[in-house]
Amino acid sequence: MKPASPAPSLLSTAFFAFYDLHHPVYQAYAAARLPQEEAHLSVTQLFDLIASQWTQIMTEQRPSAWAWKAHTGAVARRAGRTPSPAEDTAFLHDDLRLSIDRIATITGNDAARVTALLAAARRTPT
Questions:
Q1: Which of 26, 33, 66, 107 is deepest in the core (most CB within 10 A)?
Q2: Main-chain dihedrals φ then ψ at residue 34, nearest 5 degrees
């Protein structure tokens, strides 16, 4: 379900492209850490926030990084646990089966940073 506010006519095509690209991963990430309804609510609230601040977010150097930080922070608060960036990256790669390039796109990192985080996750005992 697309965000409710602001009115769709006021949002750019770029917002909807961002939504279509990020929403499935954000939903899967939240669903792995929260009960279904809470995951849905968290992701819906995030995209409402992004929609309401779209113009300002687009001035960020890495809008995807801003959104990912907001998303993982909200999920962590609801779950009562904050995974490390390496743990999150390993989850995206190993559990959600995302490629390094796709993880870079979703998280706003470059591929080299994603690769380094994956290496760090492999060195960290669970």
A1: 107
A2: -135, 160
The pLDDT-based confidence of 124 (bands split at 50, 70, 90) is: low
Q: Which of 46, 37, 89, 102 is closest to 71 using CA atoms? A: 46
Question: Per-residue pLDDT tens for 20-41?
Answer: 999 999 999 999 999 999 999 9
DSSP 29-86: HHHHHS-HHHHHHHHHHHHHHHHHTHHHHTTSS-HHHHHHHHHHHHHHHHHT----HH
Closest CA to 65 of 116, 105, 10: 105
Instruction: Please give the backbone phi and psi of residue 97, each rounded to the nearest 5 degrees, phi first.
Output: 60, 40
